[in-house]
Amino acid sequence: MSGLADLKLGFIPLTDCAPLVVAKALGFFAEEGLDVSLNREASWATIRDKVAVGALDGAHMLAPMALAAAAGASGGLTLDVGPSLIAPMALNRNGSAITVSRSLADTMRAADPQAMAGPPVSARALAKVIAERAGQGAPPLTFAVVFPYSMHNYELRYWLAQAGVDPDKDVRLVVTPPPRMVEQMRAGEIDGFCVGAPWNAVAEREGLGEIVITASAFWPGGPDKVFGVTEAWAHHYPDELRAALRALIRASAWSDDPANRDELVVLLARPEHVGVSPKVLERALADEIVFHRDGAGVPRREHALWFLSQMVRWGQVAADTDIHAVADAVYRPDMFRAAALSAGPLLDPAQAFADGPGELAPLFEGPAFDSTRAGPYATAFSIGRARV
Known about the structure:
Keywords: Cell inner membrane, Cell membrane, Membrane, Transport. By secondary structure, the chain is α/β, with parallel strands linked by helices.
């Protein structure tokens, strides 16, 4: 970066990139003295690597991806070999969903009509299909997630495991960039996927898939993306970071306002942004994604701890990892508060301090998560890969 007037920020074409798109298009970045270029990237791995090496100053980022690097997760950039990532702002809650192909949905409905009578749909119907296929010697079903360290991976795994399906033994999991999910389902390469909006709605609109559970049904108000930067960049450019956060907070508040919905849809539908039909964008924006209200922008420590508990559960990091230290290092509500409280009356000060220890809303068909007991929670499930 060459100064206050020059920032490069990356994003993936998803509905929840809205705060970055709006802050640029409506001049919120410019009003903060920032000349921002937005780079549409092909995959989450590209986002991570470009931020790490400085090709991007910051980005729309998977929340667990930032945590994985600090936790030393396999395949991530560890603190010893690469720059650490931090999350000074959360970008949204909800927005993802699990979709299965039309043919698989029909098979599940025949196997267990009651389980398919939702929403939300239980994976019990899928478990019966998987057991029947195994008895016939059929190959395992293939499901796609966007990245190993993502809400989408943990959401799909949790949903499957609650029905007794072992995601590492009973199905095949692959990683696919969000915009390619629909074409892979069309080609018959995958039987289902978990991805962020709008790609689930695109699959339904094209008659290829059926949404079986949305993020808000899985975990009401559950976290998803963050704005990520390296710790070194934040240290060297604190004024630029605070200015960018103020612009993003304004953009998030604007995006949440129903009066701006039509304009937001037009912005996101542009080919340089998400590039899909406005109709499929409207679906998640109408009743699913939250950008700002109820303190959605606060990078909450308990959200970080739940993500880290899933890394432990599925063997991505060791069970003796100090996940509380990792959460504190990566999630930076102090930076969010400094920006929010200097941005004027956009956020109730009480909401800026909305993170803290305690229970979160119960997840789908599972126990409440107590962030003070994140370690025991991670190893308490009958299906998992927790390792010491």
